[in-house]
Each structure stands twice: as C-alpha cells, then as structure tokens.
Design brief:
Elements: E1 14-16, E2 19-22, H1 24-36, H2 39-45, H3 50-63, E3 69-72, E4 80-83, H4 85-111
Helix pairs in contact: 1-2, 2-3
C-alpha cells in the first residue's frame, strides 16, 4: 500500500448565488442531449426521470445568459431537443476548467510528499 500513488479526485459544482448551475451530472446531461437529440433519451441513458432532466434544464436555462437547451416542436417523427451554441460553449468551458484543475492537482501531487 505504501507504494500506491497519491491521487486527488475533484467534483466541481458552479453556483449562481445559492442556485446550482453546473456540475459533472448537468454537463453529462447536456452531452447526452447533444448525442441523442432528445431529453427523454438523455434522461433514460442516465437512469433519470424526464421530469428531473427537464427541471435541471430549466434551472440551467434560467441562469444562463442564453438558453443552453431548446426543445424542438414535434412533427411526424416527434419532437426533440438541441444543445444550443451557448450550451456547447458551456460544455467546452467546463471541460477546460476540469482539465486545468486536474493538471494543477497532478503537479501538486508530484511536488508534494504526503506520506
């Protein structure tokens, strides 16, 4: 056990005041909506109810300057949802933040003797 490397695990959540805005799960939801083009399918793939997913989307959209997700009207094949350009930019920014933090933590673990 003494030879096992030290590692950090970080879960970053971003708030607007007291209101949750972004975190790992919400980013994953945005990514799944982008992948499937459907809130229902994205929610199902995450073992989440549609109602919960739609609630999270409404919260994010209310805080963001521009909507991150927009519902598409139904047609012959039914409706769907798209991640907007603002939503895609938000995903990228969050991923960049996480990469930067992970790089910093990796350097910290290399430079610090914990045990």
């Amino acid at each position: 056990m003494a030879d096992d490397p030290i590692s950090f695990r970080v879960n970053v959540r971003i708030f607007h005041g007291e209101h949750p805005f972004l975190g790992k799960g919400r980013i994953q939801l945005l990514e799944r909506i982008e992948q499937f083009g459907s809130i229902a399918q994205a929610a199902k793939s995450m073992e989440m109810s549609y109602r919960k997913a739609w609630g999270l989307i409404k919260e994010m959209n209310a805080i963001a300057r521009e909507p991150l997700v927009e519902k598409q009207s139904g047609g012959k094949s039914g409706g769907g949802a798209i991640v907007t350009n603002a939503g895609k930019a938000t995903i990228r920014k969050y991923q960049q933040l996480m990469q930067s933090l992970e790089a910093h933590l990796t350097k910290l673990t290399e430079d610090t003797h914990w045990i």
